[in-house]
Amino acid sequence: MDKVFIEGLEIETTIGIYDWERRIRQPLVIDLEMAFDNRVPAASDAIGDTLDYKAVSKRLIEYVSQSEFGLVETLAERCAEIVLSEFGVTWLRLKLGKPGAVRGARAVGVVIERTRGA
């Protein structure tokens, strides 16, 4: 399976369950792997045949920066739904990290794998 990836996409948003978290913006980091058959764009050398990772990134930045969820789990699910439904991706692995949320840890968060229709 070929994959297109976005690594270390940093987006500031309002996220968290504590009152103090609701009053500030915090950075989140997204790593995303998406199944995509790269043989067609490799043969054509045409951007229109690719999975446009810039378009995916811009869409996630737009969505996440305006969101105000309590849980990273909820935000990860919504991001996965967007990518699966809007970009023709059939499978993805999404890692959503919340840097500095736990003392002594670089980041905490979730990793999910989803398939369109599942």
From TrEMBL:
UniProt keyword annotation of Lyase present: yes
Reaction(s) catalysed (UniProt annotation): 7,8-dihydroneopterin = 6-hydroxymethyl-7,8-dihydropterin + glycolaldehyde
UniProt xrefs under SUPFAM superfamilies: Tetrahydrobiopterin biosynthesis enzymes-like
Keywords: Folate biosynthesis, Lyase
Residue ranges occupied by any Dihydroneopterin aldolase/epimerase domain in the UniProt entry: 4-114
Entries under Pfam families matching the protein: FolB (PF02152)
Superkingdom in the source lineage: Bacteria
Biological pathway: Cofactor biosynthesis; tetrahydrofolate biosynthesis; 2-amino-4-hydroxy-6-hydroxymethyl-7,8-dihydropteridine diphosphate from 7,8-dihydroneopterin triphosphate: step 3/4
Assigned EC number: 4.1.2.25
Keyword Lyase in record: yes
Signal sequence segment: none
Gene Ontology MF terms in the entry: dihydroneopterin aldolase activity
NCBIfam families, A to Z: folB, folB_dom
Functional summary from the UniProt entry: Catalyzes the conversion of 7,8-dihydroneopterin to 6-hydroxymethyl-7,8-dihydropterin.
UniProt record similarity statement: Belongs to the DHNA family.
UniProt-recorded name of the protein: 7,8-dihydroneopterin aldolase
Native source organism of the sequence: Luteimonas endophytica
Gene that encodes it: folB
